[in-house]
Design brief:
InterPro entries: Acyl_transf_3_dom, Nod_factor_acetyltransferase. The chain has about 400 residues and is mostly helical. It has one domain (about 30-390). The chain has 18 helices and no strands. It has helices at about 5-15, 30-35, 55-75, 85-105, 115-145, 160-180, 180-195, 205-210, 210-220, 225-230, 230-250, 260, 265-270, 275-295, 315-330, 330-335, 340-360, 360-370. Helix 4 crosses helix 11, helix 5 (about 115-145) packs antiparallel against helix 6 (about 160-180) and helix 7 crosses helix 14. It starts with a helix and ends in a 20-residue tail after the last helix.
Length: about 400
């Protein structure tokens, strides 16, 4: 963890996509408020996270979301024999990445493409994408899974697609600030993408466009919306909703293909009529928003043992994929079929949760800092508009 105020703000930005500076805005939407910074007003029932001034609610949410991402990845090789596991997988995949993307959009509200923000975009997103895209491609070759796996930055491999998508979404942020009805426009783009089978694999554009509405929704949210889902009545209403969701997912598990949840295929490629596909795309968006609200309703608002781990979720996200793929490609799951049973799924889930927790710890974060949080001052011109008054 950083102890200096400037360093803590920088870490918050890298983990969630918050630009480092922003113009003066109303109190409810200041960048400091968005980041839970030192000068941000703390909503009722929420306290600043120690000396760093980070908002513990968002760090807790990021940590819990990355645990769900990692556990769901661990289920993939063993869930085919279990209807219950497939149903849980569908529930988690409905909202875990939308929640992550929505929070990323929320922390991108002050992005305006200024030189300092562009440098942060290159060092905090583009560089990690390039490094881990190469690393995962070489790992696929080394493991023997795909000896001919090409090393290219144009076709994101496995989980690196999110960094490529975040790079594109962030660049479009100023456009969404001037659109009168940004969310309906983003939904229209997502539906149009789902109806276009020829988009291709470059930058995984199909996913970039289909997940776009969640980023745009995050841009439109304010602190008051996150306070709203923290109300006791929302938690109370979420219980029967979760029960109904579980029942629906169990019914749908053998009937609904998983491609809908990955959002990397067009409606034509999935093989359903266009009108049914459009209804599915819009229905999944609504379900993802509702389940994201339910998820956020149960996120602790105060500082807990997981709060400090929320600052290292970028490390947990980028590294846990090596564990999941190694277990699959090197035959660990095939050699242990018991992992597909109820006890095995619990053990596997707990093991992956512990692993990703360790990957989010400060020592790992410090180790990866040259890749995930580099300064690279030598690589950029020093723009006069970014100088502090004392430097002139």
């Amino acid at each position: 963890m950083f102890h200096a105020a400037h360093a803590s703000r920088r870490a918050a930005a890298l983990d969630t996509g918050e630009p480092e500076t922003a113009p003066a805005t109303p109190r409810a939407t200041t960048p400091a408020s968005a980041a839970g910074g030192r000068n941000s007003p703390s909503p009722p029932g929420r306290e600043p996270s120690g000396e760093t001034g980070r908002d513990p609610f968002f760090d807790n949410a990021k940590y819990l979301a990355i645990v769900l991402v990692a556990v769901a990845h661990a289920w993939e090789p063993v869930m085919d024999g279990s209807r219950a596991a497939r149903a849980l997988y569908m529930i988690v995949y409905t909202f875990h990445m939308p929640a992550f993307i929505l929070v990323s959009g929320y922390f991108s509200r002050s992005y305006q493409g200024r030189p300092r923000q562009l440098r942060r975009l290159l060092t905090g997103i583009a560089l990690p994408y390039a490094v881990f895209e190469v690393a995962y491609s070489l790992f696929a070759r080394w493991s023997g899974h795909n000896p001919d796996q090409p090393v290219t930055l144009l076709d994101p491999y496995y989980l690196t697609w999110f960094l490529a998508a975040l790079f594109v979404w962030r660049l479009t942020t100023p456009l969404w600030r001037i659109v009168r009805r940004p969310l309906p426009v983003a939904l229209a783009i997502a539906v149009a993408a789902a109806l276009t089978p020829g988009i291709g694999a470059d930058l995984n554009l199909q996913r970039v466009l289909q997940f776009l509405p969640f980023f745009v929704l995050g841009l439109a949210l304010g602190p008051e919306h996150f306070q709203m889902v923290r109300r006791p009545e929302v938690r109370l209403m979420s219980l029967p909703l979760l029960a109904a969701t579980a029942a629906l997912a169990y019914w749908a598990a053998p009937r609904v293909g998983l491609d809908w949840f990955f959002r990397s295929s067009s409606i034509q490629e999935i093989g359903v009529p266009w009108w049914q596909g459009v209804a599915m795309v819009l229905g999944l968006f609504g379900a993802a928003v509702v389940l994201t609200a339910v998820f956020l309703a149960w996120v602790p608002a105060r500082r807990t043992w997981m709060t400090s781990l929320g600052a290292g979720t970028i490390c947990g996200y980028l590294l846990h994929g090596f564990l999941a793929k190694a277990g699959d490609w090197l035959g660990f799951f095939d050699a242990n079929p018991w992992l597909g049973g109820p006890v095995g799924l619990v053990v596997l889930s707990a093991g992956m949760a512990v692993a990703v927790t360790l990957l989010c710890t400060p020592p790992v974060r410090r180790l990866l800092r040259p890749v995930t949080e580099p300064e690279l001052r030598w690589a950029f011109r020093r723009d006069v508009s970014d100088l502090r008054p004392g430097d002139r």
